Amino acid sequence: MSLVSEITRNLVNEQSTMQFPQSKPWLESLRADGIDAFKKDGLPDINIEKWKYTNLNQLNGVTGERSPEVAVNQDQITWLLDEVETNKLVFVNGYFKKSLSKIIDVGQGIRISALCNELLNSDFINNYLGKIASTADNPLFALNTAFIEDGCSIVVENCKLLKPIEVVYISTGSNATCHYPRNIIIARNNAEINIVERHIGFGGEVYMSNGATEILVEDHSKINHYRIFEDAVNGINLSSVRAVVKDYSCYNSFVLSTGGRLNRCEIDVSCAGDRANASLSGVYTARDQQHTDHTTRIEHLVPNTTSVENYRGALDGSARGIFQGSIFVAVGADGTDGRMSNKNLLLSSQAEVNAKPQLEIYADDVQCAHGCTTGELDDEALFYLRSRGITEPNARAILVEGFLNEAFSGIEEQTILDVFHEKIRDWMVI
Amino acid sequence: MVAVKETLDQVQTVEKYKYGFVTDIEADQAPKGLNEDIIRFISKKKDEPSWLLDWRMKAYEHWLGMKEPDWAKVGYPKIDYQDAFYYSAPKSGDDGPESLDDVDPEILETYKKLGIPLHEQEVLAGVKNVAVDAVFDSVSVATTFKEALSKEGIIFCPISEAVKDHPELVRKYLGSVVPYSDNFFATLNSAVFTDGSFVYIPKGVDCPMELSTYFRINASNTGQFERTLIIADEGSKVSYLEGCTAPMRDENQLHAAVVELVVLGDADIKYSTVQNWYPGDENGVGGIYNFVTKRAACRGKNSKVSWTQVETGSAITWKYPSCILQGDNSVGEFYSVAITNNCQQADTGTKMIHLGKNTSSKIIAKGISAGRSQSTYRGLVKMMPKAEESRNYTQCDSLLIGKKCGAHTVPYIESRNQSAKVEHEATTSKIADDQLFYCRQRGISEEDAVALIVNGFCRDVLQELPMEFAVEAQKLVGISLEGSVG
């Protein structure tokens, strides 16, 4: 039996013996759907085209057991947006920590809470949960659905919530276990949400965080989704986002991944309404034996939708970086404008990059383009800085930083932009 | 303006698929189906040495355990490999033709109709200076200019003849670039290949004329499995052309060829193809399944390979001419135009594997889809750890004509060397309305305007073709798109 199928079996066994808190029939059936879909194909292996470059054999050592609830002290958390009076949610091993969180905005179209509360107390979330993403598309989404229990649930209607919501996911790395945060973010009817997500890990043990997020933006709404992945050295973070963007709405995603042994960040967006717009930006940096994989797919399903994608990577040591981007234009989706750019820097002789920028187009009145480059730092630029008395390590750092920062030029909120820049600088210094 | 007028004239003078006729000729065929006996039969017919039969058998055995690839973006009903003839040769007595006078006049007539001169005096009288190897179904029927070439030490002959006359060369290089176990269709070819061309250019020789092979599938229900092997020894240079046509038939016919190029130090091979197999009718009935493996190995320092292809025919094209850039400073180029119309499907591209230092490659791919066709560019650029300072530049552009077609780009970029630079860009769009308006305003009909604009779109590639081919290719671009507008 291959390693991947062995881990699959462990995960399925674990699910069948799980004792979920008392729950509703619709939720039971959603979980059952998830485990059935997952059982069918199991964890993907490298023969699956989308997983060609990422081998889940790296999950070796993960037991499949559900991570325990662990207490975390307030002083173990550093906030990115401390000075701002904002909503803050903390999840430890996928469980909501009420004592560490602070929800200040409530009422009038704003509904921010832990998913477990929504699941226990009302049927409201049943309107959305599992309706935006299908378990059939993505085995990791199916796996997450099989274990739905907690996560963050944000629904905003007819209200612009400009102050960012800060969400922190902590993995304590206890005994090679797994957890499955499930998030749902809905903005409708002239709403706006800014959400800053941060994934951190403690300790040196292996763990798997398999997060899944469903996003719906409709009717003149906008979501700015900022995410930073800083998992622990042996952490494995496999996250999937499924977003549907409808009429006159906009989904902006900014991802920075620097941590973890294996980080796979998959984003799947459908532009499904008139003038829908999606913009995906990302930076991945890796060193030593790290493996980072960014896989995106943007579907243009109706006429007059637009998308922009800009990903940059810097790879050092023996790290491996993967970028797989795909633009799909459906029959009849005329007036589509889709652009994708991916640039990579190799900073060492052992590093490797694999890129697959893909176009799949079934309509003729479209403008689609992609560009992709890989290479090393420009000697002339380096020489320019050196000739001005800047030491080589500093000169290199300046150039790499400038190269990576460009991906985030779309961030309008200065405090958040500063955070992203600072994180990139931190990576350079280590 | 003169050039424009010329293009228009050319576009107007050519009819639809004018190569669709059948030559009524008695054929010597092996029984239908594929098994060890058929392979022995082919090998015996060709009077092959035992090592080659063993090689075929190994390939067949391997093939039995292989799965047909399904990753390409093409759809077709399952092929019954037992329902085809694997050997068909024009009946011409027991031995092959000794000279052109022995060749069946019907066949000569066929090539004449196709515009391929086989009589050397005709050739000399005309403008073309091209040596031709004509392959009809499973066998080579005539090779011209053999003597003139042999004076230079160049070997240009059917591969079945080379097996007998130059076994040491064939044995050394056959399967050295595309091994018998390579992929489903190449393995099938290794087991049942019937004929094809063999070229050897000795050290330091610059081949004085273009070499050309003309492939023709005639018999119904036959698969054509040719195998071409070109060896350019150190410091030599050759330009090779390949053309192909087939009659219009309702059934689908399989063409699974293998082309191997071996380029030694400082040598240069330019390989051009105008592929115009029968594409099927407007409803997608009939047409050739063109599943071809082409690969070049640049083995020495400073060696160079250039692939140029114009793909207008075939119901399905599955073809990835590749370069393995092993020698330091070696160069690989790929220029491609793929035009699909009606129900055609094309999944084509290239692989550039950079192994040596300072190797460079360039890919220019233009895809044009019209009607209900699907066209895909699929390519791989791979920089291995030792490919210091290597370079690749890739540009793939797609043009869409009509609401029901599709154009797809699937590039794979894998870099494992810090100093290697890879650049890739791709665009997809339709013919700009203002360009079309400009032409229409000057009294050019819509269809001609499209042909004109498309020719301009393909210019970067077409200009890489040798002269005679470039003219033919330009015409083809026009006819292939007939009926795609309005």
Describe the structure.
The complex is a heterodimer of chains A (430) and B (486). In chain A, a hairpin with a 2-residue loop joins strand 1 and strand 2 (95-96). In chain A, helix 2 packs antiparallel against helix 4. Chain A folds into two domains: 3-273, no CATH class; 378-430, no CATH class. In chain A, the strands form two sheets. A ten-stranded mixed beta sheet of chain A has the order 2-1-5-8-10-12-14-16-18-20, covered by helices on one side. Chain A has seven helices and 20 strands. The longest helix of chain A is centred in the N-terminal third of the chain and has 17 residues, at 25-41. Helix content of chain A is 20%, strand content 39%. Chain A is of the alpha/beta class. In chain B, 25% of the residues lie in helices and 34% in strands. Chain B has helices spanning 2-13, 36-45, 50-64, 105-113, 120-125, 146-151, 159-165, 167-173, 184-192, 433-441, 446-457, 459-462, 467-480, and strands at residues 27-29, 88-90, 130-136, 139-143, 155-158, 197-201, 210-216, 227-232, 237-245, 252-255, 258-263, 268-275, 287-298, 304-311, 316-319, 322-325, 331-340, 345-348, 351-354, 360-370, 374-383, 391-401, 406-415, 421-430. In chain B, the strands form three sheets. A ten-stranded mixed beta sheet of chain B has the order 4-3-7-9-12-14-17-20-22-24. Chain B has a six-stranded parallel β-barrel with strand order 13-15-18-21-19-16. Chain B is globular. Chain B has one domain. Chain B has 486 residues and is of the alpha/beta class. Classes of the chains: A alpha/beta (430), B alpha/beta (486).
Descriptive labels:
heterodimer, A: 430 residues, alpha/beta, 2 domains, ten-stranded mixed sheet, 7 helices, B: 486 residues, six-stranded parallel barrel, 13 helices, 24 strands
Low-confidence stretches of chain B: 10-15, 121-128
How many helices of chain A does DSSP assign?
A: 7
* SS elements, strand count of chain A: 20
Structural class of chain A: alpha/beta
| Overall pLDDT level of chain B | 84
Please write the string of helix (H) and strand (E) elements of chain A: HHEEEHHEEEEEEEEEEEEEEEEEHHH
Q: What is the SS-derived class of chain B?
A: alpha/beta
Strand arrangement, largest sheet of chain B?
A: 4-3-7-9-12-14-17-20-22-24
Outline the biggest β-sheet of chain B.
10 strands, mixed
Of all protein chain pairs, which has the greatest interface, and how many residues does each chain bring to it? A-B, 34 and 35 residues
Q: What is the overall shape of chain B?
A: globular
- Specify Rg of chain B, calculated over alpha carbons: 22 Å
User: What summary fits the major beta sheet of chain A?
Assistant: 10 strands, mixed
Quantity of strands of chain B, as a count: 24
Helix content estimate of chain A: 10-25%
Multimeric state of these chains?
heterodimer
Euclidean distance between termini CA atoms of chain A: 40 Å
The portion of residues forming beta strands of chain B comes to: 25-35%
Distance between the terminal alpha carbons of chain B, to the nearest Å? 25 Å
Number of domains of chain B: 1
What is the number of independent domains of chain A?
A: 2
